[in-house]
Amino acid sequence: MKRILMSFWPSVYDRIIAQTKLIEFRRRYSDEETLVYMYITRPCMEIKGIIKLGKRIDMTKVPVDSAFYSQALHDGYKPDLYFY
User: Fold this and answer.
1) Is 82 inside any structural domain?
2) How far apart are CA 29 and CA 58, in angstroms?
3) 6: part of which helix (H) or strand (E)?
4) CA gap 19, 46 in Å, rounded
5) Of the candidates 52, 45, 44, the residue with the CA atom closest to the CA atom of residue 16
6) Range of 30's domain?
7) Among 18, 20, 41, 59, which one has the highest count of C-beta atoms within 10 angstroms of its own C-beta?
8) Per-run averaged pLDDT (10 residues), the chain, 84 residues
9) Rounded distance, CA 84 to CA 67, Å?
10) Residue of 7, 16, 84 whose CA lies nearest to 47
11) What CA–CA distance (Å, rounded) separates 2 from 34?
């Protein structure tokens, strides 16, 4: 399993911990399951957690009327910003 360090704003980290943010979008992402060390930016500036992320999902193949797509929009997905 791949291991990486990924930085998060404190507000995003809080939403992930509270489970109100369930989907994370990045322009570059691994094609395999990944263990992510969560580095929290200022003012914390420390690693505060570890999460396991699944394989990359191609959003162009997700039906726009699905619950997953709706959650993605809620979590900040903008269809015109992500190209695969």
Assistant:
1) no
2) 11
3) strand 2-8
4) 21
5) 52
6) 2-74
7) 59
8) 96 95 86 96 96 90 94 87 56
9) 21
10) 7
11) 5
Question: In residues, how long is the chain?
Answer: 84
- pLDDT (0 to 100) of residue 29: 84
CA 32 – CA 34 distance, rounded (Å): 6
Residue 14 covered by a domain: yes
The torsion region of residue 16 among left (phi > 0), alpha (psi -120 to 50) and beta comes to alpha
- Looking at the structure of the chain, the number of domains it has is 1
Please indicate, yes or no, if residue 79 is contained in any of the structural domains: no
Output the six-digit token pair for 40.
């929290």
| Structural tokens at position 25 | 């979008």
Residue 23, φ and ψ in degrees, nearest 5: -130, 135
The predicted structure's pLDDT at residue 82:
56
80: in domain: no
